[in-house]
Amino acid sequence: MELRSEQRKFVDYAAKRVKENKYCVCEMPTAFGKTFSALMLAKKLIDEKIAQRVVIATSDNSLAKSIFLEAKNVDNLPDYVLGIGKNNYLDIKKLTFFMDTEISSEVLPLDKEVVDGAIKKLKEDFSYVLIEDFLNELDIVDADKREYIANNLALEKSNSESFKEYTIQITNYSFLFSKFMFDEKYAEVDGTVYIFDEIQELPNMAEMTLSSAFSLYSYYLQLKTIAKTINDDASAPKTLIKLLNEEVERVKSINEIMSDEKMAGKTLTANDIAIQRATNVLSKLFDQEKSKALRAKLKSYYKKTPFFQLGVFLNKFDDVKSTLSSKDIYISFSQERGFISFHTYSKDIKLKLADKFWSKIDRFVGITATALLTQDVHDLEIYKRMGINFSDIKLGDTVIKERKSKVCVIKSFEGILRPEQATYSITSNDFIEDEQKRFEYFADEILRGYDGKNTMVLVGGFDEVRLLAQKLESVKDRLVLAEQGRSVQNIIEGFKKSGGILIATRNYATGINLKGKTLERLFITKLPYPVYQTKKWILLKEKNPSFFWFEYNNEMVMTFRQAIGRLIRSPEDTGKIFLLDGKFNALSEGLKNRLIYFLEKIALKGAQL
């Protein structure tokens, strides 16, 4: 494969900035071919000795795998490797054994034929099976079950642990953060350059990495698994077995009491009384003498008879301690049965990125389709979003000096798509307060404008999915609904086969590739603001209301750009975008103009609604 003209401009521009010891972020539109361009940039940096090593990082394992597979299309690429952390690969032998156990029937009953089919499919183009891909393929979205699989069915050794000798390393942000932010002594070799794919996701991934969580149900499952292994050990102390079995029953009982099926899939951040009551129950559980005695005996047993699951389990106690002692705790309920989990929100993410991450990064190139959030081509907000600020940051006795001299303005590159491929229309109506009437209006506009074409409708949450489906009763046979407890990937795969009208939530605005006739109409019924009732936004609004609205609007604009980018994915695509949210007309002129500006980058103005 050869670089197109605009791709070559990117490679030359980015290489020049790296050579000048700069930070640079580049915006590439849909269908630009950013993965191939990033790999060609890595090749140029190595071939011309601008860098000794290139690390390409992205937001999740599936994207990292895609980059790794794309590398096969680059001729004479220096040696490269996928390194994402050992707990990300599925151990097929462990899975086979697990499927025959009692705990499998309780946690995750798996059909052998379905599992074999999933593994065969996932190994068609890659010798390993990523746990993330496996879980998505089987539609396992419950957080507790995903964690259990990751903890118990992962390869204990993999090729991802010894890749320092490779010139080009492909990884994910979480693995990168685990090296940089949790190991004070870690330092990358001189001459390393970083290419950050989907760079807008970097602070979100840092937030996830730095936050702690504790699931009581997951703890119970792990405890039961440990108990089974130790019970089968004839040499295990009888007192340990007795304590362990008693603890399993006690934790199971408490977990059932604290679960709430009516709250399944919901998060509770502001009810201090409920949160404190739940926290107190857990604190008492782990402070009891029997629990302390059990921990001591398990540690003693581990020294003599170590095994992977027990090591993971013992670390859970540290999770409990750090999570329950946090002042910024909140709780959530699992999607299936409403089992309770405790979470912390790590404040000052930007400061921590500045202190523990950017202080160790000398040169990088960031690539994304949504770097700019305003019409101003000199807008540098994305740097601030990532913790690269333009003034000194004081952290105790440490002062992180400004990096303004290293920052380049965002460079936008032309793509192969043209606005003539699509039209957009915006409602002229004010926001309709009555929910039933509002959704009747949405249904009328969808029926009027979808023209029998394959359509995606973006709403808010799952309650709105169900309500709109009721209003579209006349075309119920054509509806495909986003479902709580099902993966986005599998819903989309089903929609590709069936077509129709997909009613989806906000998280369908990103990471979906529906080319050609698989998607020709896009309706946005609700501006994609982030969920306000999360700890992050509550704390920010309490701390600085004006900055809250600034960040809140920016987050919406970024997601809006991602959402409208779902429609036109190739030069052959055509379609129509309909913005039906009447709240658009109440926005400030500046914010309205920003949204229209980005609409007109990908579509021509159509008829007013």
UniProtKB/TrEMBL annotation:
Pfam families: Helicase_C_2 (PF13307). SUPFAM superfamilies: P-loop containing nucleoside triphosphate hydrolases. InterPro entries: ATP-dep_Helicase_C, DinG/Rad3-like, Helic_SF1/SF2_ATP-bd_DinG/Rad3, P-loop_NTPase. Keywords: ATP-binding, Helicase, Hydrolase, Nucleotide-binding, Plasmid. GO terms for biological process: nucleobase-containing compound metabolic process. GO terms for molecular function: ATP binding; DNA helicase activity; hydrolase activity, acting on acid anhydrides, in phosphorus-containing anhydrides; nucleic acid binding. It comes from the Bacteria. Residues 1-267 form the Helicase ATP-binding domain. Belongs to the helicase family. DinG subfamily. PANTHER family: DNA REPAIR DEAD HELICASE RAD3/XP-D SUBFAMILY MEMBER, REGULATOR OF TELOMERE ELONGATION HELICASE 1. This is DinG family ATP-dependent helicase YoaA. It comes from Campylobacter concisus.
